[in-house]
Amino acid sequence: MKLDIFSLFPEAFDWFRSQRSVQNAIAEGNELRLFNYRDTTPLGAGQVDDAPYGGGAGMVLRVDVVDAALQAVYANGERPRVVLLSPTGRLLDDELADELTQEPHVALLCGRYEGFDERVHEHFADDEVSIGRYVLAGGELPAMVLADVVMRKLPGALGHERSAVEESFSQVLEGAPEYPHYTRPPVYRGWDVPDVLLSGDHERVRLWRAEQSRARAEQLEKGPE
Ligand SMILES: C[S@@+](CC[C@H](N)C(=O)[O-])C[C@H]1O[C@@H](n2cnc3c(N)ncnc32)[C@H](O)[C@@H]1O
């Protein structure tokens, strides 16, 4: 998979790119590329935004700037699925992450300030994705969240292939939360690990985990007490 991220702050992704799962995915032949709208802006002095028509607070990312960035990067005719990060977009969940993982080429557009000129939404975005109903200062953190959830699903990204398959909200767990995990020591400050996990009986462990997962799904459904 090729994942392209357009941002005014590509250096914000330095840490993200250095993560083991991302490095593993890249070593498997996947690509993570970063582009700065400022590098290709057709305006002088690196300008990328402008005041909103009609007045009001804040600046708006210009449509010609985004167009120039996409044209420069995809001059060879490539056509990725373009995902614009927006607080009002489709809420990111495991199903959407699975869908995007199947795509050979995805481009993420990170906004800043008041967001994008509406014509970017209308003419360049195939999808709009939100990581939650709240407003962050920019699309960089949402893009990292999306890139993380997608890239860790790619074959070879995680050391243990099953870890990405059997996880909270995955199809394998029928969309339910994952069961609890324990590791050594078996008793800590009087807090025990459930006996079944120490029994060595794989079938009992499997049934216990399924039950725990179901109970957590019911709890989640009920909401906070
Ligand atoms: C300050 S926000 C703009 C908010 C916009 N004025 C509004 O009220 O909807 C700047 C950028 O951050 C990104 N962003 C902020 N919150 C987000 C969220 N919850 N999910 C996805 N992207 C978000 C988007 O790319 C957005 O264009």
Q: What does this entry look like structurally?
A:
By secondary structure, the protein is of the alpha/beta class. The chain has two domains: 2-151, Alpha/beta knot (3-Layer(aba) Sandwich), CATH 3.40.1280; 166-222, Trp Operon Repressor, Chain A (Orthogonal Bundle), CATH 1.10.1270.20. Helix content is 36%, strand content 18%. It is built from nine helices and nine strands. The chain has a five-stranded parallel sheet with strand order 2-1-6-5-7. It has a two-stranded antiparallel sheet with strand order 3-4. A two-stranded antiparallel ribbon has the order 8-9. Strand 8 (187-188) and strand 9 (191-192) form a beta hairpin. The two termini are 42 Å apart. The relative contact order is 0.15. The structure holds S-adenosylmethionine. S-adenosylmethionine binds at residues 85-88, 110-112, 114-116, 130-132, 134-139, 142.
Q: Secondary-structure map with pairings?
A:
Blueprint lengths: L1 E6 L6 H5 L1 H8 L3 E6 L12 E2 L9 E2 L1 H11 L7 E11 L2 H8 L3 E5 L8 H6 L3 E4 L9 H12 L9 H5 L21 E2 L2 E2 L2 H4 L3 H21 L3
Parallel strand pairs: 1-2, 1-6, 5-6, 5-7
Antiparallel strand pairs: 3-4, 8-9
Helix pairs in contact: 4-6
The protein binds S-adenosylmethionine.
List descriptors.
single chain, about 220 residues, alpha/beta, Alpha/beta knot, Trp Operon Repressor, Chain A, two-stranded antiparallel sheet, 9 helices, about 35% helix, binds S-adenosylmethionine
